[in-house]
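Protocol step 4 of 5: obtain the predicted structure for the target chain.
Materials: sequence only (see below). No template structures provided, no constraints applied. The aim of this step is simply to have a reference model before the mutagenesis design in step 5. Sequence pasted as it appears in the construct record:
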Amino acid sequence: MQPTADKEKCYTYADYVKWDDGNRYELIDGAMYVMEPGASANHQGVNGELFRQLANFLLDKPCKIFHPLFDVCLNAGGDNDTTVVQPDLVIVSDLSKLDGKRCNGAPDMVVEVVSPSSARMDVLIKMNNYAKAGVREYWIVDPEDKLVRVCLLKSGKYDFTDYVDVETIRVSVLDGCAIDVKQVFASLA
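Step 4 output (structure tokens):
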């Protein structure tokens, strides 16, 4: 089914799963957003290296890591949820939030690799929704500027630190995990 963007309608996950026109969508507070059709080689390389390092760290640990196309219903509303996102990477330690199709509620960590067309969405709109939902750690990775913004949730708001030209960054929600940032950006064309 091809969805019709109706600015007056509040869409839910039940609407979202019916959209099968070949496009990717996200819902933010019931509003429909069409996602860009494909990721660049730099986006894929950075995301792939982050996934590799995090997945290797999580071997034999009671956490799960997911990459696109994985749905996160941020408000834990299941079929009635009005905010459904597909982050680049998701880490979940509370496995009761997983129902076989999606994550219901805030993951522990979300990573978004930004592109020029997604920066506003990732830096403003999604950041506010992730904080409101209780995502404890949010990374915004910018391959173009070789920058990683690490946002840590404190009292319902994010405190953030920007990292440029560093060797490693510690992952706060994963005790003992540090990402080799030089290796992450080594894949750039």
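Step 4 remarks: The domain at 13-185 is CATH 3.90.1570.10 (tt1808, chain A). The chain has one domain: 13-185.
Proceed to step 5.
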